[in-house]
Fold this protein.
Amino acid sequence: MLKHAKCKICRRLGEKLFLKGEKCYSAKCAMVKRPFAPGQKAKKRKSALTEYGKEVREKQKMKKLYGVTESQFERYVKEVSENRGKTENVADELIQKIESRLDNIIFRLGWAKSRANANQMVSHGHFLINGKKVDIPSYAVHVNDVIGIKPGSMSKDSLKDISEKMKKNTLPAWLSFDKEKIEGKVIKKPILGDIQLPAEIAVIFEHYSR
């Protein structure tokens, strides 16, 4: 994804999705400088969305936030929908599927500045799951799985001084970090209440049930 396009995504959806790492927390953020949709007439365009339009917008927020394709996201939603009778909370079930992706966990641990960066780092084979290299960004990490850094990758600029960088990062309740071993661990399944989500999940399920 082109760097300049990431800011336009947030502006178009009207939501800060933190796609560019630290810049999103600064005054340089496009949503701070230009909090309206891109385009010459964007400030004047205030037409109300249809119900279908709202559904698409919420779906797009989730897809762009996690950096997944339409086919990947649709598969996650449909897998959860098919198990409606077997699960207590479909929203939590969807969150567990998408938050448990390896690239997302690398981002949540603070080892990458953005999910896009984490996706690239995973693809390059820098991380281990229970001691074995995994280079699939969508790999589903389970409870009690240990996430480590490949010894040969510890010298990379982006992975140097991880313990120091971790001091600035607040881990979600479902992850832990061992600063002695420099390893992360999934200690429980994530739920919707563990994260701040910019999209309405109920609306997303309505969209895919059409």
